[in-house]
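Researcher: Predict the fold of Sulfatase.
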Amino acid sequence: MSRTEPVESNQPNVLFIAVDDLNTWLGCMGGYSNTKTPNIDRLAAGGVLFTNAHCQAPLCGPSRASIMTGLRPSTTGIYGMTPDDKVRWDGNEQTKDITFLPEYFSQNGYHTMGIGKLFHIHSPGGVFDESGGRIKGFGPLPEKRIVWEGFSATRRKDYGRTSTDWGAFPAYDSLMPDHQSVDWVNERLGRIYDKPFFMALGFLRPHVPLYVPQKWFDLHPLDSIQVAPYRSDDLDDLPPIALKINDLPMMPSTEWAKENGEWKKIIQAYLACVSFVDYEIGRVLDALENSEYADNTVIVLWSDHGYRLGEKGTFAKHALWEAATKAPLIFSAPNLSKGKVVSSPAEMLSLYPTLLELCGLPAYDRNEGKSLVPVMQGAVDSEAFAISTFGYQNHTVKSKGFRYIRYEDGGEEFYNHATDPNEFDNLAGGNRFQTEMSQLKSHLPNVNAKWDEHSLYKFQPYFVEQKARVNGSSE
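Model: Structure tokens for Sulfatase follow.
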């Protein structure tokens, strides 16, 4: 595939950067708690930053399946963790003949390469022309956990074991899988290709365990940490089903973290992981800038969902609230403005059609998302909205000023972000915002597929019960 002279092509290359569990605590998005992300910030300064982008599912597996298929979870029934090779299979009518995003580029003349966490684990076999794979697990790991054992303190037998833990480990960046992934990418950015390339890089951090070398912790002294907005009575006005979904006793609760002096330490560890990933992103950006491809490459940086750092009582994603669904989205391309900020709602589902348009490729008619190119070029979408789904018939719709949540049993939440950006007060039971609620309800998906056979989420008992009930089978 490589040759001695670069190929002359009007089609740009693509650098596709996925960061696991990255929330919006970034410098370019207002920052929080002394956050330090100079490289993500410079990417945003050189491109278009979406400050109101939302995942299609607040969980790694279904979120990534949605991005790579271009289909909503409610369309495919992929609501839980699904083996990479089973995202597309004959038993799923919607995905059995779908073309994954990297495959579409390959079919249109691109050399595709990928390493790290891109689908839930890495990717289905054969999706990339050249795969660096994923180093298994989220290690390296210390011999013993540093703080959090990983089980529920009260219901140990009922739940799986979370990888959640935090502390300084290992000693050197070079021992981190993400560092090794960047080495792989940077070596390939130094090659010459006879066609445009699509390069995908998936980072593991800041997914738990929150382990990185000590030097990254040193960037975030505890006395500089600002904790997340939190009210101990925040969940008192929620429908019972919301409490079921938020029942995550294997995770440290905010009350536990407060009582044990660990809240700022968890945030410190998260920010340390983000700073480490930011440094590694900087290594890639430097390599690209020093390569043959600096002036003809589309870059997109995205995360699969947000991450709660004490909001709504816990440290996890796993929810249809703002802190769990909102995530960074940045595009940089030769024909895009620099330093533009878009505050209207956007969906990660738009990644697929947006990249196709930026690269001058024909639209893929199976995509359910819409291209963001018009908005990035100045069009105003006053009716923009974003839908996130967590299990069968549990949806949230986010508009510019409001969030509406409807659960499978009809339970509702509604938040006015103009006066309540932290979503403390559920207004669904009142009469004041009925018109706004009705408008957002009109965007709820009309299709709600049953759970895909291979899609599971045994980490949370509610979803085990839901799948068995909806599909009429036992797990």
